[in-house]
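Mutator-like transposase domain-containing protein: structure, please.
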Amino acid sequence: MWNEVFREHQNVSPHCNGILEWDLSMEEKWGSAWRECAKCTKCTYRSKMFNLYEEVASIKRGRRAAKINLGLQVGLHHTPISTASYRKICMASNIPPPSVSGMQHTANAISEKGRRRKHERFTTTKGENKKDKKKIRGENPDVVNIQSDSTQCPYTVAENETYKHSIINTLPKSKLCSKRKHTVSTNVGEHAGPCTANINMQDSIGNEERWARECFEELKEDGLEVNEVTTDPDSSAYRAAESLFQEGLTTTTPSIFLTPDM
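Here you go.
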């Protein structure tokens, strides 16, 4: 950057002996990334804006994402600290922190990509290896044993075939929306602008049978049917597997196993 600025300034003002410095009035902050330009202290020279970060290649139109912003969220996903905690660390270090909305937007994108990547990895590499092993053992390769549990918003399904218990499907559900009109209406999307909620206000967040059914239907689309369901005694997830079988949507009779320590 500075080599280009020096050459350009010399060509524009060859007799100027001013000092080149950052033009702080023009700087732009984007998450943890910055865009800057240089100016001369004597003449009117001002350079173009330079990205002080690397961009992520993308085929979409518009500004490309900064690697530092995506890398930050990848790191936060592997640590117990949250966005708020990271911003406190920045402020305590006298570093301008990224905005909450910007970090949340990037976190949503990273979470979705991570979920798809883990799901694809299971249904391709791990799934094919598991099917080969089942064929060797003379077992049905198109069924899978799972264990499940539901927290407040995300419903997760993990395979119960290996000691790793890898998550093979995640179903995030939320009623939260920053739009005031959504809090007084009942259905998703009844207000102008984007809606971050994906279930209606009157829906029960604890309806495990409904969320489990959606997860099992997605697994069915990937060629997997639920065989053994291991879950806690107060869960209704097993009913989802039973209803799919009774309706003829699956051909594998589900077996239910209850565990008191989940």
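Notes: The helical segments are 2-12, 67-77, 83-92, 100-136, 180-184, 208-221, 237-246.
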